[in-house]
From TrEMBL:
It comes from Leptospira brenneri. This is HTH-type transcriptional regulator NorG. Its cofactor is pyridoxal 5'-phosphate. One of its GO terms (biological process) is alpha-amino acid metabolic process. The keyword Ribosomal protein does not apply. Residues 1-69 form the HTH gntR-type domain.
Length: 468
């Protein structure tokens, strides 16, 4: 690639990232020549390409500016800043439909009962009820044996946190909430990837936090260059993310990407809150390390929090999660006690009894195999019966599909209800309008003949719309 084409591509990425906003003036030819250490001819040719492709326009005597309709030419969401999040009402309204028991819910990221070890859990509750101490308040940080089990397992995954550095919580959402409570104040700025789990916006709104969205890029995950520019521009307090099989797009960040993001966060003093709830559901290879495992552990290190739960692997109704933090658990535990005296003792004991059966790893192996197979079957069927209209992003793990379609996601939800099913529209997973033509589908619903027929009907909705 020639020098001027390389420069043009670099400038496109900067515009795509939102580093330069719509209608904002960009450096002059002379300024870009100095900034990029290139010749004036190279700069002129690069700017010519940007003009031709609709990225910039020139105002005589004033300079070059980002095109006012830049969103129509970029391939992904810009890095947009939101001084306030107002998502709760919209989310609640749509989620009521998604969770309607009269519909087959392909929209909610809830594992089907078939993929849960319900028999083992029932037996474990019976064993737990024999322990009289479960009817009293327990340890303020959670059952010590359960924390020790989590500690040992985290160590195998590459993150060494002792039992005293772990807090049991009522699910992963609560883990994230308390982590943010411990690392921010109202009015602080948080960087979040886009798209990302819908429930996080409700947390951010409640805590009155400002938000900057950084997109997942297909080629590299989260761009380190974009991340650094956002840090310099917005001075965020926290980076809130999911590095392993992000919900909804299933992306797994590479080890190199994780290392670079951890290094940059440490350098600028950014605290990390990582949602690792899908980390055990990888389709191939070995269990990926959490990003926080690459964060240096020393007295100067910003706080980092690793959040997860058993909701996606054992049972969502148990509401049993945890936070691991090498330097922030004391403050976090103090905050949890302001809301409740202790965790649910009977449930903690039941989960511990199940884990002692030593069948958890076998269960996870079953889940990984089943979800990989279901993912492949869903993609094959949807692609065939929609005649290739759908752009399906193949995930690296988890049990949801992220799909782009020619139809608006909110309207697609209305159409899908007519055939007795529900999907999760893309508008739920970001604050910008970029995901309006996307939707999420839960493959753990299964692949029975009834489900297969329902998916075929759903796929044909796109053909009908194309004909009209």
């Amino acid at each position: 690639m020639t020098k001027y084409k390389t420069l043009a591509e670099d400038l496109k990425k900067e515009i795509q990232s939102g580093f330069y906003s719509e209608k904002e003036r960009i450096p002059s030819l002379r300024e870009i020549q100095n900034l990029k250490e290139c010749s004036l001819t190279t700069a002129k040719e690069a700017y010519r390409i940007l003009e031709e492709e609709g990225y910039i326009f020139v105002v005589p005597q004033s300079g070059y500016f980002v095109h006012p309709n830049i969103s129509s030419v970029i391939s992904g969401p810009q890095n947009e800043f939101y001084p306030a999040v107002e998502a709760d009402d919209r989310i609640q309204q749509i989620m009521r439909t998604v969770m309607d028991p009269k519909l087959i819910s392909f929209g909610a990221a809830i594992p089907s009962d078939f993929y849960l070890p319900l028999g083992g859990i029932v037996s474990s509750f019976k064993k737990a009820l024999k322990h009289k101490e479960i009817f009293s308040y327990g340890d303020l940080q959670g059952n010590p044996e359960l924390r020790e089990w989590i500690s040992k397992r985290l160590s195998i995954q590459g993150y060494r946190a002792n039992p005293d550095q772990i807090q049991i919580t009522s699910g992963c959402t609560e883990s994230i909430t308390f982590s943010l409570l411990s690392s921010t104040e109202p009015g602080d700025t948080v960087i979040v990837p886009s798209p990302i789990y819908v429930g996080l916006f409700q947390i951010l709104e409640t805590l009155k936090l400002k938000v900057v969205e950084i997109p997942y890029r297909k080629e590299e995950g989260i761009s380190v260059t974009e991340y650094e520019k956002l840090i310099k521009r917005h001075k965020p307090k926290v980076f809130l993310f999911s590095a392993n099989f992000n919900n909804p797009n299933g992306i797994l960040l590479s080890e190199e990407n994780k290392q670079n993001l951890a290094k940059l966060s440490y350098q600028y003093g950014i605290q990390l809150v990582e949602d690792d709830i899908y980390g055990d559901l990888y389709f191939s290879g070995t269990r990926p390390k959490p990003l926080v495992s690459y964060f240096p552990s020393d007295s100067k290190s910003p706080k980092s929090y690793l959040c997860s739960s058993f909701s996606k692997t054992i049972s969502p109704g148990l509401r049993m999660g945890w936070v691991a933090s090498k330097n922030g658990i004391r403050d976090l535990s103090k905050r949890t006690r302001a809301y409740k005296i202790s965790e649910n003792n009977p449930t903690q004991m039941a989960v511990l009894q199940y884990l002692k059966l030593q069948t958890f790893e076998r269960h996870l192996k079953f889940l990984r195999s089943e979800y990989k197979k279901l993912t492949e079957e869903y993609i094959k069927l949807l692609s065939f019966y929609s005649e290739g209209i759908l752009e399906i992003q193949k995930p690296d793990g988890g049990f949801v599909l992220w799909i782009k379609s020619p139809l608006d996601g909110d309207k697609l939800l209305t159409e899908s209800k007519k055939i007795g099913m529900a999907i999760a529209p893309g508008s739920l997973f970001g604050l910008s309008k970029h995901w309006d033509h996307h939707f999420r589908l839960n493959v753990s619903v299964g692949f029975s003949p009834k489900i297969r027929e329902k998916l075929i009907q759903f796929s044909k909705l796109f053909l009908k719309k194309r004909k009209t």
